[in-house]
Design brief:
It is a single chain. By secondary structure, the protein is an alpha+beta fold. The longest helix is centred in the first third of the chain and has 17 residues. It is elongated.
């Protein structure tokens, strides 16, 4: 029975006028109904459903399913929701930070992540910002108990003093400088450019562009001085490495 059905299926696939899977199955069903084979009708409908689910036509072509969780070119992912936490925690942080060796009165901070454990402990992760720009690698993790008391504070912040947030170079020029600094520069491509402050362990903080470049499995973050165009630093990264 099944072999006879498959033979009819193969014959149907060779017919030029059958352009879609449902046409193909309907042609088979017409012959099946004439012979009164109820079981074969069930098989035909099962075949039809499987063909439609797979997106297969009579010529055997298949429409690839859309990738799941992938943002296509030109699309913009939804912005992450703002972290939710009691506002008074920031007041407690600034008030009690000195007890953990931090002076935060002149430090701009922005919470980028907040979580509360089942124990009631809330953890805030904060990014140092200056004039609306992030300060590279300057972050804090603050732990509070259920009453809002600061339990622990770790990380790094840097007083920047009087610094300008106005670049002299544009992002495109910084991108060109970063790519030209790479060995075999023609093999590298730029993935992202962002303006930030770079506070080295020694020396004056700099306004810089961070240019993310990639070649195959290699990725680098190149810091280009936004005033002079000098390469300040180059950080190695994995293919999946990203900057939050």
């Amino acid at each position: 029975m099944v072999d006879n059905f498959r033979a009819r299926e193969d014959n149907c696939q060779n017919r030029k006028h059958c352009d879609f899977a449902d046409d193909c199955v309907n042609a088979a069903l017409t012959k099946i109904k004439k012979r009164g084979h109820y079981m074969r009708m069930l098989l035909a409908w099962g075949f039809a459903l499987s063909m439609v689910a797979a997106g297969v036509g009579c010529g055997g072509s298949q429409t690839a399913p859309a990738p799941v969780g992938v943002v296509g070119a030109g699309a913009t992912p939804d912005a992450a929701p703002a972290p939710s936490f009691p506002p008074y925690l920031l007041d407690n942080l600034r008030r009690d930070a000195a007890g953990f060796g931090f002076e935060l009165s002149a430090i701009g901070l922005e919470v980028y992540e907040a979580e509360t454990a089942s124990t009631g402990v809330t953890i805030l992760r904060l990014q140092q910002v200056e004039q609306g720009l992030p300060v590279l690698n300057n972050r804090l993790a603050a732990h509070f108990d259920a009453a809002g008391k600061l339990l622990d504070l770790r990380g790094r912040v840097t007083p920047l003093g009087e610094v300008s947030g106005e670049p002299r170079l544009d992002g495109g020029r910084a991108e060109s400088i970063a790519l030209a600094s790479m060995p075999e520069s023609s093999a590298w491509r730029s993935e992202a450019v962002r303006l930030l402050f770079y506070a080295a362990d020694s020396g004056r903080p700099s306004l810089a562009y961070e240019v993310t470049v990639r070649r195959g499995l290699f990725r680098k973050f190149v810091l280009v001085d936004a005033i002079t165009g000098e390469i300040l630093h180059c950080l190695e990264g994995s293919p999946s490495a990203v900057r939050p």
